[in-house]
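ARCHIVE CARD
CATEGORY: sequence design from structure
SOURCE FIELD: tokenized fold
FIELD CONTENT:
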């Protein structure tokens, strides 16, 4: 369903020249200028004293309802109509939470699933490699937002631009910082999460509880969070565990610039992925048990073989490395599960 009124004239003109938004809405119908409309409306709203007049309870779910479109089109308060029109960019994805999770998944896909070691080296050494990586960011984000990419293409472009800037900062930090591993990794990921939050804020999405987009499918927000969590603990987690071992243990293998796809890495990914999957889905198999207890057992159980194996090692350095890797992986799984619980709670699923 196409949301009316995306022509920037309906936003900018109404804000500056007292042109009727209703008249502009009737004439508009293109999505080609979403970015101009959203940004123009954004700055107009931020510069206006007083609370927005648009009802914050409007526009819940993937698509705006017929009543909602009727309410907006027939609105007599031009500023209320103007403010609500700006929020359309986030409306079709169900709001802030769904949009954030979708953009975050695009980041995970391009930064981990679609970034082999050769590309990591290339982006650090040449502009062409960096541009290729940024292009993959755009492709992955567009793929995640597939059904709405015609509407959401400004966010794809802005995500690419933000990623380019962050990668330049991270490369500079890696060159100029003695602690190149864990600090730079956390610095890089924090900037990416903040940039995604900024994009959602610019988009003007604010509701929760609506369905989300996952490629060509419509899913619930908890489902999308589960996918994000599993990708985080498996792919992102392997880099985090590696950097943590290098920072706290001084693992000699950490001198390797790029983490290899070896058996320990694959086993660690399986360990963390199974732990989070059990925490999320095992409680449904035990309806009479306490959810928190079943989830806790599910989180810890996959790490038991690691800790048992660690106890048999005679080399203290190896034991310390295994413990740091296991503790880091478990902590990441607990964090991902906590985020999943928060999404379930807030979305009311």
């Amino acid at each position: 369903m196409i949301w009316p009124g995306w022509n920037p004239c309906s936003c900018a003109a109404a804000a500056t020249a007292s042109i009727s938004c209703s008249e502009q809405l009737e004439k508009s119908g293109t999505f080609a200028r979403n970015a101009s409309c959203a940004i123009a409306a954004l700055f107009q709203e931020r510069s206006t004293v007083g609370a927005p007049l648009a009802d914050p309870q409007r526009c819940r779910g993937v698509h705006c309802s017929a009543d909602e479109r009727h309410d907006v089109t027939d609105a007599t308060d031009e500023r209320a109509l103007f403010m609500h029109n700006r929020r359309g960019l986030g409306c079709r994805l169900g709001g802030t939470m769904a949009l954030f999770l979708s953009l975050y998944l695009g980041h995970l896909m391009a930064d981990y699933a679609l970034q082999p070691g050769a590309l990591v080296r290339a982006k650090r050494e040449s502009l062409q490699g960096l541009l290729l990586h940024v292009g993959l960011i755009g492709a992955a984000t567009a793929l995640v937002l597939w059904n709405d990419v015609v509407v959401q293409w400004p966010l794809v472009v802005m995500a690419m631009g933000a990623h380019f800037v962050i990668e330049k900062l991270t490369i500079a930090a890696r060159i100029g910082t003695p602690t190149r591993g864990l600090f730079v990794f956390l610095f890089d990921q924090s900037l990416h999460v903040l940039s995604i939050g900024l994009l959602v804020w610019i988009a003007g999405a604010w509701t929760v509880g609506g369905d989300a987009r996952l490629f060509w499918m419509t899913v619930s927000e908890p489902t999308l969070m589960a996918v994000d969590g599993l990708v985080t603990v498996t792919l992102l987690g392997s880099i985090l565990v590696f950097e943590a071992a290098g920072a706290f243990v001084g693992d000699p293998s950490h001198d390797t610039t790029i983490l290899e796809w070896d058996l320990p890495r694959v086993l660690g990914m399986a360990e963390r992925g199974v732990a989070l999957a059990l925490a999320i889905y095992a409680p449904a198999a035990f309806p009479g048990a306490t959810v928190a207890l079943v989830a806790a057992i599910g989180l810890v159980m996959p790490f038991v073989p690691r800790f048992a194996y660690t106890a048999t090692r005679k080399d203290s350095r190896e034991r310390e490395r295994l413990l740091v890797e296991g503790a880091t992986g478990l902590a990441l799984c607990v964090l991902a599960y906590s985020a999943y619980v928060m999404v379930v709670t807030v979305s009311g699923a």
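CARD ANNOTATION: The mean pLDDT is 73. Residues 8-91 form one domain.
SHELF: design records, drawer C
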